[in-house]
Amino acid sequence: MTQYPNDIPNDIEIHKRYYNEICEKLKQDPYANSLGIRLVEVGQGSAIAEIEITDQMLNAHGTTHGAVIFALADFVFAVASNSYGKTSVALSMNIGFLSASSKGSILRAIAVEEKRNNRTAWYQIHVTNGEELVAVLGALAYRKNNYFVTLETKDS
């Protein structure tokens, strides 16, 4: 992972030019893959993913474990905040659980970038079960100096 000088393309140009490379990297999340999370869409500062709830994802009350809901929300946050090819990590996350879901439910998480600058970015994530709002997560990302895609610069 290399740091680049100030002559690199802007975030939107990087997202467009390196879209396939960015998506392939983000799809390789071992934890998300182990849970069966499916990446549905990657946009500029946004993402959509889904998970089907199985027996192993339930808590003692027979509803979806909060950790599974959080993992789904965290994954779309990670994809959205890394969608420009610039390595981003979580600084803080706050989740509110609003309704229960159960085995067989297909949960969908949508992350939307609300504000971004060179160093930080703020995201809102909604997790739904059909029309039912299951959870809402607010998340702050720290945008590091390095890129996980190989950018072509003027010196290349």
From TrEMBL:
<dbReference type="InterPro" id="IPR006683">
    <property type="entry name" value="Thioestr_dom"/>
</dbReference>
<dbReference type="Pfam" id="PF03061">
    <property type="entry name" value="4HBT"/>
</dbReference>
<protein>
    <submittedName>
        <fullName>Hotdog fold thioesterase</fullName>
    </submittedName>
</protein>
<dbReference type="InterPro" id="IPR052723">
    <property type="entry name" value="Acyl-CoA_thioesterase_PaaI"/>
</dbReference>
<keyword id="KW-0378">Hydrolase</keyword>
<dbReference type="InterPro" id="IPR003736">
    <property type="entry name" value="PAAI_dom"/>
</dbReference>
<feature type="domain" description="Thioesterase">
    <location>
        <begin position="61"/>
        <end position="134"/>
    </location>
</feature>
<dbReference type="InterPro" id="IPR029069">
    <property type="entry name" value="HotDog_dom_sf"/>
</dbReference>
